[in-house]
Amino acid sequence: MNLKDPSLLRQAALVGSDWIEASPETGLAVTNPATGEVIGYVPNLGADETRVAIEAAEAARHGWAKRTAKERSQVLRRWFDLMMANQEDLGAILTAEQGKPLAEAKGEIAYGASFIEWFAEEARRAYGDITPGHAPDKRILSVKQAIGVVAAITPWNFPNAMITRKAGPAFAAGCSMVLKPATQTPFSAIAPAVLAERAGLPSGLFSVLTGSSRAIGGEMTGNKIVQKLTFTGSTEVGALLYAQCAPTIKKLGLELGGNAPFIVFDDADLDAAVEGAVIAKFRNNGQTCVCANRIYVQAGVYDDFAEKLAAKVAQLPTGNGFDEGIIFGPLIDQAAVSKVQEHVDDAVAKGATVTLGGKPHTLGGTFYEPTIVTGVTSDMAVAQEETFGPLAPLFKFNTEAEVVAAANDTDFGLASYFYARDHARVWRVSEALDYGMVGVNTGLISTAEAPFGGVKMSGLGREGSRYGLDDFMEVKYICMGGITEGEEVS
Ligand SMILES: NC(=O)C1=CN([C@@H]2O[C@H](COP(=O)(O)OP(=O)(O)OC[C@H]3O[C@@H](n4cnc5c(N)ncnc54)[C@H](OP(=O)(O)O)[C@@H]3O)[C@@H](O)[C@H]2O)C=CC1
Ligand SMILES: O=C(O)CCCC(=O)O
């Protein structure tokens, strides 16, 4: 990999103020999913190093929280500038370890950096309020204060943005953070930590721990110093961490799995719906928790939509993310390939038809053909489980009531999408969908300005937007008494 600044590919973890270098003998190998080549090594750390990092975070946080919001904001702004100045290198590191095409990886760096920029601005707007008192001599003050030491665990699918969406508000609020990135994509966490140091983030405030997820996660969830755990990943691991946090009553932010419906009504702009479906379904090769998992198309436009979607997707090239013009990179690993194949096979066994793709790509490795399946019904596995891969299953429906019921018939409630023109329907359906997020006539809803998060088993809390800062702060009530009428004190 040719980087302008090779020091950004640092094969080390940051524990408090110390960098711990990795060695091939004892470290964990990080591989390129497109080629299987080893990119480098990271240290295999555990509970002891996590404890050291948590104690360093506790020591560093007080001074950081005492700085003015403007001072914190300026450090974050420098961090944002450095990320953008190094967008090319950060994108290349991301493509090398995650597989997504370079243009998409650079897009993720800009998206990830935008959370640092947004929260650098929001840092100065953590307003409290004053409420009229319940007694003549009292006033009620509500002030917002940093929650304290935050532990973060992040996934491989957005290995930059899922970190910055947590670190931005945490540091803006005045918290410190101990992070465990996904083992498959640690370099995309370490490089921003190198830049954070250069931006002037105080020593100890931010640690990046690589190694055993159980040991690191066990210490993070069991340690009383940690006040909040913020996690993005599978619902299964989220539920486990939720339980592990119960004895020490931590605050939780959980961004978990989805099972997003994407609905196309008869009155939709069909070409726009096809464009939207390509983005909502195939972004990051379908490996996104907000990816459309079930595509419902009304009977009158079903065949047209299916044909147009297949024609569009068939033109999009698959290959190594470093090659020019590639849209579909490899999937993250063989388990991901198996999951897509299971869903395709299950649907076909129950009567569905593959109209595009449907098998591993001739490129081999973890490449899989972008796939469209028609005639999908509610008894098929894909109706209830997140595929997390490039499979677009098309369900047919007749009425609005029927599709809203089908869309809501899931344990999950993260993103949902629909295309329609009728004004009353747009309002009705937006309000009827049991989801944290609804995209109306758009397949792309993610942005730093918006509250990202789910309901039901998709998680707790919101990231991004002004609400995202609140999730890293506590409201303290100060009862101001002794305000008596009468004589002035001279
Ligand atoms: N909502 C989302 O954004 C995501 C959803 N998923 C879903 O989850 C499926 C599995 O993906 P996977 O990567 O395995 O997701 P996981 O939930 O297993 O991993 C996410 C993060 O949690 C860590 N982790 C795993 N087990 C533990 C544990 N016991 N204690 C503490 N931390 C832990 C992982 O570390 P390590 O890498 O070391 O295992 C990683 O950093 C996907 O197919 C997809 O359906 C996956 C990623 C993101
Ligand atoms: O949790 C995920 O899968 C990442 C969401 C990416 C986004 O912000 O759109």
Short description:
The active site is at 255. The protein is of the alpha/beta class and 490 residues long. It has helices at residues 47-66, 69-85, 87-98, 102-122, 161-173, 187-199, 213-222, 235-245, 270-282, 302-314, 334-349, 400-408, 423-432, 465-470, and strands at residues 12-15, 18-21, 28-31, 38-42, 129-132, 139-146, 149-153, 176-180, 206-208, 226-232, 251-255, 260-264, 292-298, 353-356, 371-376, 391-397, 412-413, 415-419, 437-440, 455-456, 459-460, 473-480.
Secondary-structure topology with pairs:
Layout: E1 12-15, E2 18-21, E3 28-31, E4 38-42, H1 47-66, H2 69-85, H3 87-98, H4 102-122, E5 129-132, E6 139-146, E7 149-153, H5 161-173, E8 176-180, H6 187-199, E9 206-208, H7 213-222, E10 226-232, H8 235-245, E11 251-255, E12 260-264, H9 270-282, E13 292-298, H10 302-314, H11 334-349, E14 353-356, E15 371-376, E16 391-397, H12 400-408, E17 412-413, E18 415-419, H13 423-432, E19 437-440, E20 455-456, E21 459-460, H14 465-470, E22 473-480
Parallel strand pairs: 7-8, 7-10, 8-9, 10-11, 12-13, 12-18, 13-16, 15-16, 18-19
Antiparallel strand pairs: 1-2, 3-4, 5-6, 6-22, 11-21, 14-15, 17-20
Helix pairs in contact: 1-7, 2-4, 2-5, 2-6, 3-4, 3-6, 4-5, 9-10
This protein binds NADPH dihydro-nicotinamide-adenine-dinucleotide phosphate and glutaric acid.
Describe what this molecule looks like in 3D.
It is a single chain. Helices cover 38% and strands 22% of the residues. The protein folds into two domains: 6-256 and 458-476, Aldehyde Dehydrogenase, Chain A, domain 1; 260-440, Aldehyde Dehydrogenase, Chain A, domain 2, CATH 3.40.309. With 490 residues, it is of the alpha/beta class. A seven-stranded mixed β-sheet has the order 14-15-16-13-12-18-19, with helices on both faces. It has a six-stranded mixed β-sheet with strand order 9-8-7-10-11-21, sandwiched between helices. A three-stranded antiparallel β-sheet has the order 5-6-22, with no helix packed on it. Bound molecules: NADPH dihydro-nicotinamide-adenine-dinucleotide phosphate and glutaric acid. Glutaric acid is lined by residues 157-158, 161-162, 232, 255, 288-290, 446, 452.
